[in-house]
């Protein structure tokens, strides 16, 4: 049986590997030429790293591996990426005279991708709502609806998964797309386990 220290090591190794692979694919797509890097080139990486990191939260949660330090640090990282991913695109579009978000997002992609853009925008709002609910989770009213908060986050994860498949330039690379799909398949049973736990009010896992 794995000790808490070994579990924590696996947790950090996994998230570092996934984020590292996302960075590698991004650098590969730029031919490792980072001079003159613009917000347009940087913002896609943040979306991928945020989703991969949140994916590990679901995996560890399903396995009942809990670490306050891991959750807190990676949580801050995810929040920063979620804010910067659309934020950088919105800033770049505004700077180029293409208006304000969210409407400027639709001007960056062809009209045929409007649906995928809407999925991403919706998911960001849902993810950010979690930050509010999480800070109020000990209040009786929030406890009563927590299962629905959990369900909303699972839906947002799914929306981002589809959003990235349609819009993510990096996912056009065969190996990263394969990894993305494998993670998506693994995510499904993890979501089921966590949602079942929330809907039956069960809390499992020892803190590391």
Topology overview:
Blueprint (H helix, E strand, L loop, with lengths): L3 H26 L9 H24 L2 E2 L1 H28 L7 H4 L7 H22 L4 H28 L6 H26 L6 E2 L1
Parallel strand pairs: 1-2
Quaternary structure classification: single chain
Radius of gyration: 18 Å
**Low-confidence parts, pLDDT < 50 over ≥5 residues?**
none
Number of strands: 2
Number of helices: 7
- End-to-end separation in angstroms reads 14 Å
Strand order of the largest sheet: 1-2
- Please state roughly what percent of the residues sit in beta strands, choosing from under 5%, 5-15%, 15-25%, 25-35%, 35-45% or over 45%: under 5%
Order of helices and strands: HHEHHHHHE
Helix content bin: over 70%
Q: Mind describing the biggest β-sheet?
A: 2 strands, parallel
* Overall spatial form: globular
- Arithmetic mean pLDDT: 91
What does this structure look like?
The chain has 208 residues and is mostly helical. 76% of the residues lie in helices and 2% in strands. The chain has one domain. The protein has a two-stranded parallel sheet with strand order 1-2. The model has no long low-confidence stretch (mean pLDDT 91).
Would you kindly provide a brief summary of this structure?
The protein is mainly α. It has helices at residues 4-29, 39-62, 68-95, 103-106, 114-135, 140-167, 174-199, and strands at residues 65-66, 206-207. The protein has one domain (4-23, 37-207).
Task: Give a quick set of tags describing it.
208 residues, single chain, two-stranded parallel sheet, 7 helices, mainly alpha
């Amino acid at each position: 049986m794995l000790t808490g220290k070994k579990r924590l090591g696996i947790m950090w190794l996994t998230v570092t590997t996934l984020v590292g692979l996302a960075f590698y694919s991004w650098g590969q797509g730029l031919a490792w030429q980072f001079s003159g890097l613009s917000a347009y080139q940087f913002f896609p990486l943040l979306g991928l790293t945020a989703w991969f990191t949140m994916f590990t939260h679901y995996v560890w949660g399903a396995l009942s591996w809990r670490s306050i330090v891991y959750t807190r640090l990676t949580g801050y990282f995810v929040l920063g990426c979620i804010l910067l991913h659309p934020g950088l695109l919105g800033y770049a579009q505004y700077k180029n005279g293409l208006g304000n978000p969210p409407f400027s997002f639709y001007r960056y992609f062809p009209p045929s991708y409007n649906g995928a853009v809407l999925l991403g925008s919706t998911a960001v709002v849902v993810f950010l709502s979690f930050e509010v609910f999480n800070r109020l989770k000990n209040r009786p009213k929030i406890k009563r609806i927590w299962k629905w908060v959990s369900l909303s986050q699972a839906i947002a994860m799914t929306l981002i998964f589809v959003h990235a498949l349609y819009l993510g330039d990096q996912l056009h690379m065969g190996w990263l797309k394969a990894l993305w799909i494998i993670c998506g398949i693994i995510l499904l049973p993890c979501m089921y386990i966590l949602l079942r736990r929330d809907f039956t009010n069960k809390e499992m896992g020892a803190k590391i």
